[in-house]
Amino acid sequence: MTALPWISAAEVFAALDYSAAVDALRRHLASGPDPAADPPRGILDLAHGQLLLMPSESADAVGVKVATVAPGNAALGLERIQGVYLLMDARTLTPVALLDGTALTTLRTPAVSAAAASFLAPETVDHLVVFGSGPQARGHVEAMNAIRPLGRVTVVARHAGRAQGLVDTLTDAGFSAATGAPDAVRDAQLIVCATTARTPLFDGSVVPNDSCTIAVGSHEPDARELDSALMTRAQVVVEEIGVALREAGDVLIPRAEGLLSTESLVPLRDLATGAASVDRTRPRVFKSSGMSWEDLVIAEEIFRARTI
Questions:
Q1: Gap between the Cα atoms of 79 and 248, Å rounded
Q2: What tens digit of pLDDT does each residue of 166-179 get?
Q3: Which of 12, 139, 249, 296 is deepest in the core (most CB within 10 A)?
Q4: Are residues 74 and 97 both part of a single domain?
Q5: Residues 99-111, buried b or exposed e (16+ Cβ, 10 A)?
């Protein structure tokens, strides 16, 4: 086998912008394989974190991401999530490329959120509140701006210095941004939670009815970013019901409390196909845990863009 092309982080972001990534995901949701058929993600607990194996298959390609989650890496100046992605031809199963898995995740996750928000968010977003200050927080602001023109952006984070650093980065990029507190959600049309928190970040009872909240920070059944007050009020959309019932503490905890039923959960695919409609009389929530098909869709688009 000849040496595989390596698609670096810089090449990942140069090959595909958020608008194109959102379009690819929406096309897949509307006419591609049902996400429910995606192979389960493998999660192996390790001494210093987790190893994730995320395989998927499409008509043209097969791919697998090998990713690690190491909570202690921040203290070492390293990324919390790292990984590589192997892309293969579907017919021959011949490897065709290796991609920077960290960059792929950084691009894919906000793009999935923005695809969901393209259905769920109000048409006018005067105020976006983002919880978190890392690459996912920044990526989500950029991705949301690809589907809705944004007014002001409020950054809420535990570390004041990192929060201000993100504000400075966003300001330099042309956004109207400032740091704030959790109660900023009171007048937000769009809320993004991209943190490592294990307990709710804000009071869900004060979130406006005409709003969309995105939660991407946790894929563990005993951790959540959103409280039961919001989950009880909201129309709750998930990537896939089976995944949510295995991994999404934001769903599982209020469900265990008897406050959220499985039957009320709406798969994102149903919005894309028109099988379900958006309830704009109450808040909308999209809870994402991350699925393998999403990585494959984005990896294929990146590979095609580089070979055209």
A1: 23
A2: 999 999 999 999 99
A3: 296
A4: yes
A5: bbbbbbbbbbbbb
Domain shared by 83 and 232, yes or no? no
Q: Please identify which residue in the block is written with the tokens 């589907």.
A: 147
- Domain span at 74: 6-105+293-307
Alpha helices by DSSP H, the chain = 9-15, 18-31, 101-120, 135-147, 160-172, 228-233, 241-247, 249-256, 268-273, 292-307
Residues pairing with 98 in the sheet: 6, 86
Region for residue 290 given its phi and psi (left: phi exceeds 0; alpha: psi -120 to 50; beta: otherwise): left
- Look up the CATH number of the domain holding residue 58: 3.30.1780.10
Instruction: Determine, yes or no, domain membership for 1.
Output: no
Residues 18, 142 contacting (CB under 8 angstroms): yes
Instruction: Give the up-direction half-sphere exposure of residue 96: CA atoms within 13 A in the CB hemisphere.
Output: 18
The candidate with the shortest Cα–Cα distance to 153, out of 122, 121, 185, is 185
The total number of structural domains that make up the chain: 2
Q: Are residues 58 and 128 in the same domain?
A: no
Q: Per the confidence metrics, is the pTM higher than 0.90?
A: yes
Spatial distance between the Cα atoms of 308 and 305, rounded to a whole number of angstroms: 6
Sign of torsion, CA 248 215 219 267? positive
- What pLDDT sits at residue 1? 58
Backbone angles phi, psi at 204, to 5 degrees: -70, -15
